[in-house]
Every structure is written in C-alpha cells, then in structure tokens.
Amino acid sequence: MAPRPPRGLVQALLWGVSLFLSLPGPIWLQPSPPPQSSPPPEPHPCHTCRALVDSFNKGLERTIRDNFGGGNTAWEEEKLSKYKDSETRLVEVLEGVCSKSDFECHRLLELSEELVESWWFHKQQEAPDLFQWLCSDSLKLCCPSGTFGPSCLPCPGGTERPCSGYGQCEGEGTRGGSGHCDCQAGYGGEACGQCGLGYFEAERNASHLVCSACFGPCARCSGPEESNCLQCKKGWALHHLKCVDIDECGTERANCGADQFCVNTEGSYECRDCAKACLGCMGAGPGRCKKCSPGYQQVGSKCLDVDECETEVCPGENEQCENTEGGYRCVCAEGYKQMEGICVKEQIPGTLCALIYLDPETTQCSRYCSHPHFTRVGTKMQRGEAAELGFGSRQSGSGAGLIHSLRASSRR
C-alpha cells in the first residue's frame, strides 16, 4: 500500500520533499558515464604466432631440469621414455604458453595444437626452428626477415638492409603490408637511400649515408649555411641563394574574412578578428576600422561606443537604462524586480507571510499559513507563534487557488 501524505499543508510539503529526494535523480542529474576508449587494434597473426613460440621456448628452458616427479628417475625414463621428449613435458609447457587474458594466443594455440604435437614428436630433428616451421612454413602467417606480403617479396633496399637501414618496411616479416618504407627523419626516397626535404648529404659511401639539416627555410641545399639554399620552402622566395620571407599580406595570397585583418609571419600569415567596433578593418583596435559597427560612432580616427542612455530609450515604469558596449539594456530600478515583463516593487524578506492562499473577494486566508514570527489576530498577522488560518466564508472559483503574499501588520 502506498504511504499516505500527512494532514496539513506544511507537513504535506515536507513529506513530499522527502519522498522526492528518495527517488533516483532525473537523467540530467545522473553522473555521465566515463568516455569509452576505442579498443586497441588486434595484433597481426604473425606477431601472435611469434609470441606463442617465444613463450613455448621459455617453457622449455623452465622445464629443462625437470623429471616425471615420481622419485625414481632412472626407472621412469627406462619404462616411460625420456622426460625431455615426453608428452608430459609438452603438456606442462603448453599449459603455461598463453596468459589467461590473451584471447588471440588461446585461439591460435587451439588451431595449431596438432601441428605443435607433430613437431614435438616427429619434426624437431629436421626442423629445430619452431618459429620457421610453424609460423612461416606450416601456418603461412610470417615471412623471413626483410620480406613482406603473401609471397614474401623483398623489401625495398633488399633483404639484408631493408629500407637501406634508415626506415621501416611496412609488413616486414608478415604475410601482410605494402612493403612501403617509412623513412627516418632526414631520409627519403623509395628505399630511404637519399636525403629528404630540408636535408643535405653530409657524408656518403657504399654502405653509409649521413643527412644533415639545411638552414631553416631551405627545402634543398648544398650545405648548412644560409647562402647554401637551392630551393625554398613554401612561403619563402629564393634570392641570391638565400630564402627570404614572402609578405602574403601585401599580395593576393592572403585569404582573410571580411571582419578580419592579415598579419604576416615567417613563411606564412595569420588572419585575426577586427575589433567589435569595426565593420571591416586594416589592423588591430578601434582606430583601424574601415567603418563603424552599429552602436558605435566615428570620433576622430576611432570608432567609439554610443551611450544610448543619454536619450529616453527605456519607457517602462520603474525602468532604467544601462549602457553596454555597442548597445544598451533596460533593467528594473533599485528596489524593483521584473515579473511578467513589468517592474514591481520587491517585498522585504521577514515582514511577509509567504505562500498563503488568499480569497480575492473576502481577503481571508483559504489555506494554512506558517511563519515563525507572526500569528493571526482577527484577519491580520502579528508577531508570535504560527497559527492555522481558517477558510474564508466565500471563495471565488478563479481566485481561490492564486498564490498571494499577505503583508503582516505590526499593529496589535
């Protein structure tokens, strides 16, 4: 059975508030769930296979001195075969190959368990490299070092020094990837065998290349000096083997908005917003305006704010004008507040009986009034304990439910 609200307005309100607070908060008050980060990309199957084999080899090292554990090793090895090559050892190693949370490892081990058993009992002597036999030859997940792709093609620069030793061959060692060389800083070309943009050959021989940086704005150069430039980076122009900055703001290269102005920077430019007082400008501040914005006027060389409050712009009763930057606003005068679009006199806290229902015809209370400093005397309120006010003798259908405030009388 649902709980009943207590009698009396104040008690009922308190009961309602406590019930509301006991309910779950609305959705906009609930804490937002933490943002979900995207899951990490799955490792390439070749990398999973390599990790499985590495873990398997560590298991072999861990069990190299173990035995059957029965106490009589000589008899056990004579009757049960050598522990070194036994199924018991294989099972013990495989149990520790994958961590509990490594799903990819467990899935690969399940797919390749029969192959691992075949290698363990029959192929170890002819194929001692488990990684090569399992991951490359049998499962065809990996390629030899320096090769990539389904056919294990050589990386640019050759299998001995992929990408000339100055980059990373994409997909190297796997059956995937494009074989594209991702060169180190300062190196470029298909196989990273030449210097990249902004670098020059400081040293080169048959197997070695050193690339050093050009002077700042030089794209190509013959040395590190300012006068060694052969080609300039964007935003610079070559002049007598030197790169000089192009002033885009003085050319048609700058592309700024109507309410922005151009500022030249080294090798580029910036578009910055005009002052609020301007409609278009040639620089920063209200003194560089092309025209003044509405609410501003030309005073000398500057666009300055117009004080609209010097004229009668707030016609409402008890309103006053407040000037703002480029405009104004009408606010209620001190001691007044806005209610339903008009300014009404504020009631002084502590001298009113708040939230009582008043019959507009009888001016008598039609609900309860509780205030710590007032009590009822006739139809007026005086200081004292709170009292219950009775219903009026007549009630108006339109006015009985309106919320009013009854001014407390200081007279007894």
From TrEMBL:
Residues 389-412 are annotated as: Disordered. It is found in: Membrane. It comes from Prolemur simus (Greater bamboo lemur). Residues 153-193, 305-344 form the EGF-like domain. This is protein disulfide-isomerase. The gene is CRELD1. Gene3D superfamilies: Laminin, Plasmodium vivax P25 domain. It comes from the Eukaryota. It catalyses: Catalyzes the rearrangement of -S-S- bonds in proteins.
